[in-house]
Amino acid sequence: MRFFRRLLAGLMAALLPLLVSAASTLEEVEARVTQMLADEKPDSVLETPIQGLYEVIFGGQLLYMTEDGRYVVRGELIDMLTGKNLTEPRRDKMRADTLAKVSDDDVILFSPKNPKHTVTVFTDIDCGYCRKLHGQVAQYNDLGIAIRYMLFPRSGPKGESWVKAESVWCSADQQKAMTQAKGGRSVKTTSCENPIAMHYSLGKKVGVEGTPAIYFESGKSVPGYMPPAKLLQELEKSVSL
């Protein structure tokens, strides 16, 4: 949404001079988008199967724009001949690339010795279904699923959940503190340098709207809680595609 508003603002300010001639190369389209974004370069600009329509990724948003910069489209691009959604795999890759940059040192990890699958879970200490998921974390691990927790206090930086998230992160034993907090037990309030603001920002970037939000290594998203056996089934299905 932030990107869309910025792009619209850029369009209103720059559309007339930019519409003098249509772009003929990918580089020209990218330069046009950069100008619309007040000289901030987009993450990527790629051609689509539709002549004259380009995919634009910026700030975690994927949009389509005509080469002359006049029209911007939000939504799914479907190949009606094959029935394939062309937007979904591109969005998944964008999420996968974003989350792959987060090291295990910057998450709270619950993992079996030799995991078969790894998921990133955006979680809120006070979220009911987040607590339900964490109550079964041993079952996920027993099935070979590693859980990489990123903290996403839904109430934002000034909320009580944010303070709890900081206290969990800054505890000497993060796993123990997470389990205590998820069980409704108090954790000693403490603060330290932490990545929670980064977690929160990345959550917004990849499209988290509620918690728990589960992301596969492929970038596929599962909104909400999913039982261990069902999650394993979905992971195996995703790998086989």
Summarize the SSE layout with pairings.
Layout: H1 2-18, H2 26-36, E1 44-47, E2 53-58, E3 61-66, E4 72-73, E5 78-79, E6 84-85, H3 87-100, E7 108-110, E8 117-123, H4 128-135, H5 137-142, E9 145-151, H6 160-169, H7 174-182, H8 196-206, E10 213-216, E11 221-223, H9 228-240
Parallel strand pairs: 8-9
Antiparallel strand pairs: 1-2, 2-3, 3-4, 5-6, 7-9, 8-10, 10-11
Architecture overview:
Helix 1 packs across helix 2 and helix 6 runs antiparallel to helix 7. Strand 10 and strand 11 form a beta hairpin. The protein folds into two domains: 81 residues, Disulphide bond isomerase, DsbC/G, N-terminal (Nuclear Transport Factor 2, Chain: A, Roll); 138 residues, 3-Layer(aba) Sandwich (Glutaredoxin), CATH 3.40.30. The strands form three sheets. A five-stranded mixed beta sheet has the order 7-9-8-10-11. The two termini are 31 Å apart. Helix content is 41%, strand content 19%. With 241 residues, it is of the alpha+beta class. The chain has nine helices and eleven strands.
